[in-house]
């Protein structure tokens, strides 16, 4: 039987971790300069990549980490370093270069992973799948995961309206703001990973 409490708990947990409102300026900053059609496609691709990664770790997450001998803190630190590199590009304006538009699909990295499907979301899903009882519990967990990704797609898809309002100057401002936010998220993720390593030791 469908468990509303399990659904609500995981949905709220993922909402806080994946932060759809906070992803808006980062998405706009990373996709600035692309045609609207490409931006819409990138929003969809990012959500598909995030869902694929989350679903994979939900099914065989522990086995993957154990096989690779990778700890969760190591995953957090690696994700933080990757996000920090992207944040520095946003802050210095390197993402405005035409080469970046053609050669790099930011929908895959860093949007899909590790920004949306980051260590926090992966761990939350692994634990939720493990703790779910029976078919009803599993249905509730996976429904929450799907619902969260639908929300993420809607937020990014319709955040493109903001671009039409703020024009080019506003896009530059949003890009720099996104760089600052992303760098803070990256540093916090690295700190959390180091803290867990120290506590484990």
UniProtKB/TrEMBL annotation:
Record's bilayer topology term: Multi-pass membrane protein
Keywords: Cell membrane, Membrane, Transmembrane, Transmembrane helix
InterPro entries listed in its UniProt record: Multi_antbiot-R_MarC
One Pfam short name: MarC
Superkingdom of source: Bacteria
Family: Belongs to the UPF0056 (MarC) family.
Listed PANTHER family: UPF0056 MEMBRANE PROTEIN YHCE
Protein name: UPF0056 membrane protein
């Amino acid at each position: 039987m469908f468990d509303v409490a399990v659904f609500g708990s995981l949905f709220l947990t993922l909402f806080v971790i994946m932060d759809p409102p906070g992803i808006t300026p980062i998405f706009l900053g990373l996709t600035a300069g692309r045609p609207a059609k490409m931006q819409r496609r990138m929003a969809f691709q990012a959500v598909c990549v995030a869902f694929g990664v989350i679903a994979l770790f939900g099914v065989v997450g522990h086995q993957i980490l154990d096989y690779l001998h990778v700890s969760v803190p190591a995953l957090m630190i690696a994700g933080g370093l990757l996000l920090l590199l992207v944040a520095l590009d946003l802050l210095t304006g390197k993402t405005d270069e035409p080469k970046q538009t053609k050669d790099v699909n930011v929908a895959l990295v860093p949007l899909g992973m590790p920004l949306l499907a980051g260590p926090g979301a992966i761990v939350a899903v692994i634990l939720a799948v493990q703790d779910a009882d029976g078919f009803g519990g599993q249905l509730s967990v996976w429904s929450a995961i799907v619902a969260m990704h639908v929300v993420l797609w809607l937020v990014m898809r319709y955040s493109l309206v903001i671009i039409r309002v703020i024009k080019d100057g506003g896009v530059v401002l949003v890009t720099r703001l996104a760089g600052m936010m992303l760098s803070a998220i990256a540093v916090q993720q690295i700190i959390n990973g180091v803290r867990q390593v120290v506590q484990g030791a």
